[in-house]
Amino acid sequence: MAEKPQPVQVLYCAVCSLPAEYCEFGPDFEKCKPWLIENAPETYPDLIRDANEKEADKVSEQLQSVSVSGEGAAAGGTSTTKQEEVKRLPGGKIKKKEKKEVVIEKVVRNKRKCVTTVKGLDLFGVKLSDASKKLGKKFASGASVVKGPTEKEQIDVQGDISYDIVEFITETWPDVPENAIYFIEDGKKVAAA
Ligand SMILES: [Zn+2]
């Protein structure tokens, strides 16, 4: 019956008040970007990638400024004010609010090899190494804890287990409510429940 997966309720951008998918057509996409990265990362995966790249730039900048400030100190230390400016520019720490949810994504690697990634179980107090073992056993498949693209740990399970996994998760870890489980399908986040 179900022809289309039910989308998650529409997420409105707090910056321009359009639905998040439409921000890029909105009046000021640039201003929306930080909000989108925080709140609608699946809608704009590119932004995350860009942000990560910028983050990497920032780190290398900081490394440079550290080495420069080292020189400055050796030379007598008159350049400290300049250094502080440089350091403050990138805007301090990025605070990350984390929504408590488990996100499951089927990823096809090397054309045929399918991997199902499970992110967020740790947010519900599940030990990932333990979860990985249980998933591997349940699905008779290789499962491992790996670092995802944003340096956060996730579980990779070989094969497409996305059909049975929701039931397994809610049965095995009752603290994870079904309505906190999402799938990524065609780049969109879809509620499992
Ligand atoms: Zn917006």
TrEMBL record:
Region listing for Disordered, in residue ranges: 49-86
Keyword field: Cytoplasm, Initiation factor, Protein biosynthesis, Ribonucleoprotein, Ribosomal protein
Q: Where is the composition biased (Basic and acidic residues)?
A: 49-60
In this chain, composition skew of type Low complexity spans 65-81
| PROSITE patterns recorded | SUI1
- Please name the GO terms of the biological process aspect recorded for this protein, alphabetically: formation of translation preinitiation complex; translation reinitiation
Where is this chain primarily localised?
Answer: cytoplasm
Localization, UniProt:
Cytoplasm
GO molecular function: any one?
A: mRNA binding
The UniProt record lists the SUI1 domain at 102-173
Its Gene Ontology cellular component terms are: cytoplasm; ribonucleoprotein complex; ribosome
| Alphabetized Pfam families for the sequence | DENR_N, SUI1
Tell me yes or no: is Transferase among this UniProt entry's keywords. no
Q: Which SUPFAM superfamilies does this chain map to?
A: eIF1-like (SSF55159)
Entry annotated with the keyword Cytoplasm? yes
Cite the record's note on assembly: Interacts with the 40S ribosomal subunit.
Fetch the NCBIfam families from UniProt.
Answer: DRP1
- This one is known as Translation machinery-associated protein 22
The organism named in the record is: Macleaya cordata (Five-seeded plume-poppy)
